[in-house]
Amino acid sequence: MTDSEREKGALHWSDSNVCKYYLVKFCPHDLFTNTRADLGTCKYPIHDQKIREVYRTSQRYKTMGYEAMMLRFLEGIVEDMEKKIRKQHERLEHDERYMKQEQDKMDEGRMQKLEDLDKKIDMLLEKMSQAGAEGNVDQAQHMMKDVEFFRQEREKLKNSKSEEPQRKVFLVKQNVPFINEMKHMEVCTTCGAFLVVNDTQTRVDAHLAGKQHVGYTLIRETIKEIKEMREKEQKEIDEKRAARRAAREQELKGREGESADNSTRNDEDGRRSSSRSERGDRGDRGDRGDREESVVRMQSLS
């Protein structure tokens, strides 16, 4: 965007009212509208695709810190969700303990009823035997009917399964104290919603396509994407830095090698110069000797 366009009031991606989250990829405030996870209204009112395209083609792309700002915001959202998921698991654990306690109570009551029926049957059999011995046939027959009745009740109780305890409704519905239908639940590790274990595929698909699950999936994927991008960029920076370091070291070695070669050449030049000097000295001494010998012969002749 040119300076003249800025002066005319055209928006620029760096303007304070332009959503920086939207420039990176999307605005998180648009994900959960009209749900319990609603993040409210974005403090940046401008969400414009053209402005985002201009930002992504500018030389300042990925250099303004917007990606880091987006990452921090999304990680805060996920952190809150992870807290919720932990609480949901605590609810499930509490509920499982509650069900076990209720089941134990019901089993205990069932066993007590069986014990009471056994006592009644034994007592009637004893009285029936005594009545028969005393010749009270009608009384014995009446008692026999009671014994058969209690035996049938005992068999029904033995063969019947304990009714499963009622489960607290916060796992299925809201604001209802208890429910009669027993359902085993689990927590969605993405969005924290309660799910019925082994539910129908239709309900599972409906959950996966729901706004909250889709939104939190996008957030988690974007966090991973930004982190991988930053790791890749850091790796490239480290590789370039290592390449520059290697080049400097190679250059330094080259300079050291060149210095050593120069030193060697200087030493050789010095040795050659010294050798020439020695030969010159020997020549001068020879010339002086010849001159002295010539003077001596001339003196002897004279």
Question: What is the helical fraction, as a range of percent?
Answer: 55-70%
Mean pLDDT: 80
Number of β-strand runs? 4
Low-confidence stretches: 1-5, 163-181
Tally of alpha and pi helices = 7
What is the overall shape? elongated
Percentage of residues in DSSP E strands: under 5%
The termini sit apart by 114 Å
Description:
The protein has seven helices and four strands. It is mainly alpha-helical. The termini are far apart.
Question: TL;DR?
Answer:
The chain is mostly helical.
List keywords for this structure.
elongated
What topology does this entry show?
Layout: H1 3-7, H2 20-24, H3 49-57, H4 66-133, H5 137-159, E1 167-168, E2 178-179, E3 185-187, E4 194-196, H6 201-208, H7 211-301
Helix pairs in contact: 4-5, 4-7
